[in-house]
């Protein structure tokens, strides 16, 4: 595990966090339920279609089975946030050329914060490998990123900020809120 702190963004990557079997299980479980992904309207708190997000996805119910429970417990241990304070796992699929423009995971509307509270952290679990692209990019977390050993392996998009390349089984934790409960603007990602 290593910690990245490029100005103010605090994140942690774990290699081989999930087994190949767990990754394949989540994909197989989600596949029949995948629908076009939506975004949350910041005024109404309702989900709506948008060109900024072109993936497909689905939510898996919390505590659905023993494998999901095991993964949720692992997330709780990783984040120090109790399972009951989390959301159901969301499985997303991106085809070549699909994207989610840079965005924040925290809610800007009162509807969602009243409904379940603020999203304070995100754990991205990479369920498959990709040949090219697919990085999670944090454009506001700039620094001397060209010094990283994998710089030449990044796509042009991936060179736009602190980037994490997807690798099956790896996980990335980043915080949307600072310890003082203010929103962390460096958590902008896409």
Note down, in words, how this protein is organized.
Residues 38-52 have a biased composition (Basic and acidic residues). It is a single-pass type II membrane protein. Residues 37-57 are annotated as: Disordered. The chain has 190 residues and is α+β, with helices and mostly antiparallel strands. The protein has one domain (2-187): q2cbj1_9rhob like domain (Jelly Rolls), CATH 2.60.120. Helix content is 17%, strand content 23%. The protein contains three helices and eleven strands; from the N terminus they run ββαββββαβαββββ. The strands form four sheets. Strands 1-2-11-8 form a four-stranded antiparallel sheet, with helices on one face. The longest helix has 14 residues, at 66-79. Mean pLDDT is 84; it is low at 1-8.
Summed up, the helix count is 3
Q: How much helical structure, as a percent, in the residues?
A: 10-25%
> Can you tell me the overall shape?
globular
Give the percentage of residues in beta strands. Answer: 15-25%
CA radius of gyration is: 16 Å
Order of helices and strands: EEHEEEEHEHEEEE
Strand order of the largest sheet: 1-2-11-8
The CATH homologous superfamily name equals q2cbj1_9rhob like domain
How many domain regions? 1
Q: Assign the CATH class.
A: Mainly Beta
CATH topology call? Jelly Rolls
Helix and strand content put the structural class at alpha+beta
Low-confidence residue ranges: 1-8
Query: N- to C-terminal separation?
Result: 22 Å
Number of strands: 11
Largest sheet: 4 strands, antiparallel
In the CATH hierarchy, the architecture is Sandwich
Region (Disordered): 37-57
Cofactor: L-ascorbate
EC number: 1.14.11.2
Membrane topology: Single-pass type II membrane protein
